[in-house]
Structures are given as structure tokens and as C-alpha cells.
TrEMBL record:
Top-level taxon in the UniProt lineage: Bacteria
InterPro entries named among the record's database cross-references: Methyltransf_11, SAM-dependent_MTases_sf
Gene Ontology MF: a single term: S-adenosylmethionine-dependent methyltransferase activity
Keyword entries, A-Z: Methyltransferase, Transferase
Ranges of residues in domain Methyltransferase type: 57-153
One of the protein's GO biological processes: methylation
Species annotation: Constantimarinum furrinae
Name of the featured protein: Methyltransferase family protein
Amino acid sequence: MDFKHAFETNRETWNKKVAIHAASDFYNLEGFKTGETSLKDYEIQALGDVSGKSLLHLQCHFGQDTLSWSRKGAQCTGLDISEEAIKLAKKLNHELGQDAKFVCCNVLDASAYIIEQFDIVFTSYGTIGWLPDLDPWGQLIFERLKPGGTFYIVEFHPIAWMFDYTKTPPCLSYGYQQKEAIYEEYKGTYADTNAELSSKEYGWNHGLGEVISSLTNAGFHIDFLKEHHASPYNIFPGLVETVAGMFELPDRKYPLIFEVKATKR
């Protein structure tokens, strides 16, 4: 397929989402500005103390997580395909008095825009589904890490993306390791389902085997792969809230989240 057209379609949609997301309760931008972190327990526990470490955040949207790591003492660089997202990230960085850097580019082109290597490369929640092939992704992460550096991803589980959520009830429509692009048009966005926005998106579903193989093929040692029933985000239909304030399926039939931590040898 024409990947350039797919990336351009996604970029245009994400540019339109930025203002809606920034105004939404989902992103709670005002709370963030007054000191609340956007980071969740999974990533905080996995990466621990980042003070003094350099960190590259892939597909950072408008930079809340990048700036949350910066507040924890990391020297951060965030990148995203959306010009509007990067524009807002830079504005927030200045407003909050942080020293993060932000770069606008397709994540697969990162090494053409960023030449330094980092102690940590980080990405989270709704990122790899925008990429048709994970081997170049694994390679660029390896290139951008220092020897002994850490890569960490926390992401929605590929089983959760097998369903078409534009239908009620959601329909099992897509393959676990589907190579063909998934194209969707729908109104609104996950942060505001009532927003006056027509979302047009191309996505791809990647099984855990593909995720792990893309990293090991690049030369990584896998420290762990974990799967979790509980999601910090209530973005799928029918989830129930746990006593810990997380969200999971009532029958817990499949996990909603996975984590991978890897080391550059």
C-alpha cells in the first residue's frame, strides 16, 4: 500500500486532535500545569529513578509524559509526527520552565533528525499501531541508545486491537498478526467522543512475537515481557474500575496492557 499516504492521513488527523485533547478532561492539562504527573504506575516502576539520565520519548503527542520525565530530573527529547502537537509541547516546556527538546518527524525517520544517543528510549500507550513494520522501529531504537541503555514500552495489548470499536457491541474483526492496514473513519476521539472531529486513520496490529523479534533482531536483550489485565485508561467499552483505580474486563478473559523492557548489549 501507499505508506506515505497513510502517514499523511494520520498526521492530518492528529493535527486536528491536538486542540481537542488539550481541552479535554482526559488529558487534564490544567492539573498537569499545576504539578500533576501524566505518568502511570507501570512506567514509573519500570524505569525508577531517571534523574540525570538522557531520555528519548517516541511518539510523544504534545509532550505531557516527556515533561513529566523532565520534572523527575531526566534530560528529555520528545518527537512526534504532528506539527501542532510539537508546537504545543514547546509552549508547555517554556511555560513550565523545563529544558526538554521537541522534534517533529515520523518516528521511523528519527535517526535522520536526532544524532545523539540516550540512556533511555521510552514509548507508551497507543504508539506502535501507527507503524506498518516494526523491524525499522527496533533498529532506530537500537541506534539511538547508548551501549547498556534501556528501552521500555508499555502499550495496549494486541488482542484488544482485534475488535472494531466503531460497532456496538464491538466486533472481532481483525487479525492478531494482521499485515493489512486497518482503515477507520469515525466521529470524535478517545479523549472526547462528542468532539466535532472526523477521524481518518490507518493502523496496523502487531502481535507480541513481532514486537519481541523486532527488538532481538536489532540486537537487544529482553529483560522482561509482562501482560496485565488492568489498564490505567478507560478507553475500551464495558470496562469496570478496580479498587486501585484501574480498568479491566469484567471477565478478565484477556489482558489489556503489555510491557517490554530491553537492554542494548
